[in-house]
Structures are given as C-alpha cells and as structure tokens.
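Translate structure to sequence.
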C-alpha cells in the first residue's frame, strides 16, 4: 500500500517540494499510525524546503508540524484504547526520560525535535508517531481547527509565560496576522493584558482589532515604535512578542518599557539584529528566547479551545495535492492566520 505525501529531497524553491507516492509504513514498538484528516502549515515548513544556513535537516523529509486524524494501526506495546480514536498530535518530540522531561520542561530535552523538522511530518496521508504524541481531539472541534492549534498556541503560551505577562500589562504583538500572533492576542486578552499590535496590511490590522487589540500600527512606518510610546504615556510596552527579527527588532527594543521583557520565537525577516547593550542594562530590560512549549500545556490549550475561549484563525484551506499553492500563499505574506491542508483530492 502507498500514500501521497509532500517531500523535500533537496533544499530550494517550490520545485523542490515534491508530490510523491511512498509505501505506508507499519508502526514499531510504542508507535501508532494516524490517518490524517487535516494538517497546518507553519513558517518552519518554508525553512525545511528552502534550507537554513548552519542547520541540517534529515533529508529526504516530509514537512508539517501540526496534524489531527484517526489512529488506524497500533504497534506492539501500545494501549488498545487508541485504535479508531480521533487525535491531535503533539508536535514536540522528546525522550520522556531525562531530567528535563521528568520535570515537565520537555522542550529543553537534549533530544528535542519537532515533527516535520527532525522526522517525517504531517504533509502526508498518514504518519507514524509515538503513542505519547497523542491527545484526544476536543469534542465539537473540527479537524481543521484541531490541526491549526498546537504549534502556534503552544509557542504563544510559552512565550507569554516566560515573559511573565500579567493582568494590566501592555502587550505589544509584532506580526499580529501570523498564526502565532493571532494566538498571542487571544491569550494575552485571557490574561488581562492591554494589547497593541502591528500588522503589515489593513486586513491584518483589522483582524487584530477584531481579536481584541486596542491599537494597531503599520510597521512600514519607520517611527511605528513612537506610536507605542504615545499610546502608553511615554512608558512603552511591558512585554513585546517578537517573531519577525531583523526588520522589526530595533523598533521593538525602542518600544520596550523600563523593566520590560522582549520574548522572541522566530526571525522570519532575518536573524541578524543589533542590540544596544547600554539601553538594555540601564533600563533593566530582558530579551528572552523561546521555542515551542511544555507538552502538558497543550492539554490546557485544547481545553480552552473546547471552551471556545481561544480559536485558531484559519486563512485558507488547500488539499494536499495543492501544497504548492499553500506554500505560495504563505510566502506571499498576505495570509491572516493559519493555512490548513486537507487530504489528497483528485
């Protein structure tokens, strides 16, 4: 038996994202096979295809971090309860045995990886994962919504937790139209923060306002950071949620309040930035790095989704056969929220 998948064999442009038919694998000990009903793109999928200087991906590789589906086969040593069950996949991979994992900080595991980055991911009809990567799909939540939540919500929640965001803080969300940005606004609201957001288009700024931002800014204005100051009586933002990098980082630091925390999870515009250390230590500011989050927090986030307190914003949906169009949509930077991939359609 075979399945359809998208696969990267060499880094490059869209022509290196290959639509192939490959054998369906059997799960080994402790593993299950999931028939995917939906998956979702993340910027990581573009990096997997294009390549990242100084980072080696295990090619050939099926990209895709997020997914939801039905367990259709069990390997030895797994619980029979999972067979036929609707599940959401935990995108983070860890050993489960080291001290970091036992303490609940699995994203600090020395063997940590992500589906679609360190092993085959969800841009396929089926996937083999460890049993410990499964969580029940929340009742009443569609396949598309279930698949769109994990990586962006887990990343956003972990960032806000590390930045110690509390009620009454001013939170500045950079790139509010991204999947992780839309989640940051919703989670920031739940925590009682006042939210300012940047968006590169009118549609993205309107979306940010709809989600709860009280002010929105255009980062194309070189003085956008001054608007943050003016909206905060000259103080600046207590917490800045960064995921863009080079093009916004300097402005973000200028917009940061005394004692403020800038937390970053990405560098979609480039990773080389300039930091004026005098400003950083004189103002008692912090720069915090963050990747993914605790697997235990994903259970909490799925519960919030079931309670309709958070909801992934879905920009568009493509079938697996249309994966090139989905990548083009993400690269255009016109998307607002998540791009979802559904099963292969002839």
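Result:
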């Amino acid at each position: 038996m075979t399945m359809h998948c998208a696969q990267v064999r060499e880094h490059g442009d869209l022509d290196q994202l290959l639509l192939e038919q490959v054998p369906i694998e059997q799960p080994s000990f402790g593993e299950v096979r999931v028939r995917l009903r939906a998956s979702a793109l993340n910027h990581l999928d573009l990096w997997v295809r294009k390549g990242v200087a100084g980072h080696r991906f295990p090619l050939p590789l099926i990209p895709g971090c997020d997914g939801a589906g039905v367990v259709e086969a069990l390997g030895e040593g797994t619980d029979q309860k999972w067979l036929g069950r609707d599940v959401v996949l935990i995108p983070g991979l860890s050993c489960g045995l080291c001290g970091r994992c036992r303490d609940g900080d699995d994203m600090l595991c020395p063997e940590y990886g992500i589906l679609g980055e360190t092993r085959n991911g969800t841009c396929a009809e089926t996937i083999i994962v460890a049993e410990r990567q499964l969580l029940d799909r929340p009742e009443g939540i569609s396949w598309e919504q279930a698949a769109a939540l994990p990586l962006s919500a887990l990343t956003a929640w972990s960032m806000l937790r590390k930045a110690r965001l509390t009620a009454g803080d001013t939170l500045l969300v950079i790139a509010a139209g991204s999947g992780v940005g839309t989640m940051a606004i919703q989670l920031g609201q739940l925590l009682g923060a006042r939210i300012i957001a940047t968006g590169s288009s009118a549609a993205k700024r309107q979306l940010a306002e709809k989600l709860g931002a009280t002010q929105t800014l255009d980062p194309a204005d070189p003085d956008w950071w001054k608007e943050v100051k003016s909206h905060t009586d000259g103080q600046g933002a207590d917490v800045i949620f960064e995921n863009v990098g080079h093009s916004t980082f300097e402005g973000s630091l200028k917009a940061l309040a005394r004692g403020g925390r800038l937390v970053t999870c990405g560098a979609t515009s480039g990773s080389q930035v300039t930091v004026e250390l005098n400003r950083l230590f004189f103002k008692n500011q912090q720069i915090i790095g963050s990747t993914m989050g605790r697997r235990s927090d994903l259970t909490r986030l799925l519960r919030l989704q079931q309670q309709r307190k958070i909801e992934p914003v879905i920009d568009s949906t493509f079938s697996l056969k249309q994966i090139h169009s989905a990548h083009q949509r993400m690269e255009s930077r016109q998307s607002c929220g998540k791009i979802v991939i559904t099963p292969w359609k002839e």
